[in-house]
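Structure in, sequence out. Go:
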């Protein structure tokens, strides 16, 4: 079984109220080979919501207390993003999940690239908070791009 970022299945849970539907991932859901989760929604954030980026590092740095997740207005939402990561990990550990497909560039789900924390659209190498926590727990994760390239 696979866990997939909700936005990749067409659910409108992104910060801007939209989705990032990937048809091949939608097919996994229809075939009952995957379940969905959104760390931000699991943590109690609404849709739409203010954009957030990791400031001062990446998801690993957030988990280590060296960086923060900040909304564009300056509000610190680090604890909320950590809560979402923990809830996502709990789902993975309590179900028969062997792989997770996450939305690249997200402050939660970025698997190798995230926005750099300046809110100017610039990307940098690094994991989101949820991706970092899953990797620390030995969970195999892929971005939607990696998943599509594996076909």
């Amino acid at each position: 079984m696979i866990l997939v970022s909700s936005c990749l299945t067409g659910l409108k849970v992104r910060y801007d109220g939209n989705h990032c539907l990937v048809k091949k991932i939608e097919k996994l859901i229809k075939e009952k080979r995957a379940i969905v989760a959104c760390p931000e929604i699991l943590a109690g954030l609404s849709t739409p919501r203010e954009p957030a980026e990791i400031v001062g590092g990446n998801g690993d740095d957030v988990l280590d207390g060296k960086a923060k997740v900040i909304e564009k207005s300056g509000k610190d939402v680090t604890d909320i993003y950590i809560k979402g990561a923990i809830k996502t990990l709990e789902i993975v550990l309590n179900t028969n999940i062997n792989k997770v497909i996450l939305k690249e560039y997200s402050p939660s789900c970025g698997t190798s690239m995230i926005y750099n924390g300046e809110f100017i659209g610039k990307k940098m190498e690094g994991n989101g908070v949820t991706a970092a926590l899953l990797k620390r727990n030995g969970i195999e994760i892929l971005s939607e791009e990696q998943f599509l390239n594996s076909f």
